[in-house]
Amino acid sequence: MKPIDLARKMLGRSDIPREVQIVMSTIPSDTDINRRNAARIIHVIMRDIFHVQDIRDDDKLMEAEKLRDLYDCRSCVASIRQVYARGVMGAKYDLESENGRCMIFGGGDLLEEDDIAWEVVINAIDTHLGL
Fold it and tell me: Which pTM does this prediction carry?
């Protein structure tokens, strides 16, 4: 899935608002999108276009700290924390070892359509819009 396809699917239309274009200008447009950039696009659309407020509950946001690779992309941390805490995107890998559980977001992995819990996105937007 290309970044433009993700944005259009999220928005339900073909025109892309300026706020989303700004984020997309920092993402390669001619290749399939990776998970960390998908999180950035999803976050900006939910926050800036549909005005779904960011989660501010520190306990919920701390859940994302379990992701071993959360800080691999410093500019993506806030977006990954938001989509993870909201349940829009989960860990790509959940591994057990003798040292305990290891959860990895897999930000560099290519996005697969089923990586996104679309019903969570729709419910968050519908709830905010009062639908």
Answer: 0.92
